[in-house]
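Most newcomers find our protein records easier to grasp once they have seen one. Each record describes a single protein and holds just a pair of labelled lines. A learned vocabulary of local backbone shapes supplies the integers on the structure line. Nothing more is needed to start thinking about how sequence determines fold. The record below serves as our worked example for the rest of this section.
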Amino acid sequence: MHRVVVTGWGVVSPIGNDAATYWDGLIHSRSGLGEPTLAPAAELNQKVVAEVKGFDPRAAFTDRELAFMDRVAQLGVVAAREAINQSGLTFVDGLAERTATIIGTAVGGQTTQDENYVKLYREGARRLPPFAIPRLMVNAACSQISMHCGLKGPAFTVASACASSTHAVGLAFQMVRGGAIDCAVTGGAEASIAFGPLKVWEAMRIMAPDACRPFSKDRKGMVLGEGAALVVLETLDRARARGATILGEILGFGMSADAADITNPDVTGMSRAIKAALDDARLDPADVQYVNAHGTGTAANDATETLAVKAVFGAHAQKLAISSTKSMVGHSLGASGALELVATLMGMREGIAPPTIAWLGPDPACDLDCVPNEARKMPITAALSNSFAFGGLNAVLAFRASGP
């Protein structure tokens, strides 16, 4: 069994189109929420989303490449390139064949699907673009990342709704730890801010009208976001041998299924996944200082997650710093876990817990320390990142700061 470390990360987010800008936005409580520009705001009831801003695909890809790429794949490839560049890896001497590409995506190329439905049903088109399927298929981001980065090992997509990228990273971690592969480029990408998807989310009646306020009184729901975050995983021995900068270590991974309700979260399922991650990491609950919560801002999720944390951590729950970075970048569905694990690793490395912004005051049902409104300097040697998805699919990662 190998120790598994992170040696690169890349981010495209509503508060920054590279990892450094993303981190700066997190620690300065910057909100990435605003009125939609990728969908016709006048035809939407939902007036607040978290879009990636200032992203120019033509600066990153040729016209021929873009013909085959939905926005979700564009974001994913850009984040992967940044992560690989930071890692310093070159995929020569057989390493390409020993490197996996494992990507979490909940819904795939929604922009392409939406555009083609407009052509078909509104404009009456008799023929659609020939590359629609390669653009919208749920594995498109994974395939494009493997092709653009020359990664020839195992490659596949994990689709488990809002837990997709946490599941993807967890599986990559297990494969590197067990020796099935030497390295992995893993994480998640999502780009579903389009008219059709937004109308479907409106129908669920769980969308916030103004801001995402996880764990706060008067919270009114989630805000749909988009983005991508990728990390490079490799064995500690390999990273040390080549003199790589070690950004953090993954210690454990826990999964569970609620087997209860398709949309309502279950405290037992959540707590089993948290405990499984701690057990896999061989961490005592008292070893953990910080949890990046799933924290969607909905009434049911935040209250249930609070109960799950209490169930696992007991009295130590009151000593934990628990924040939801969705308050700044929205809920990017399948990419959310990857964005959050990068935030967690960054916080451990810098000794800063990112805040939960837009917090209006305590809710008795969420009576934990949610790092309200401002980032907090604090030592973080061990941390968790939670992802709890529709369908009762739960995934939790456990981390340790880079050390001996």
Summary: The domain at 253-400 is CATH 3.40.47.10 (Peroxisomal Thiolase; Chain A, domain 1). The CA atoms of residues 57 and 74 lie 7 Å apart. The longest strand covers residues 248-257.
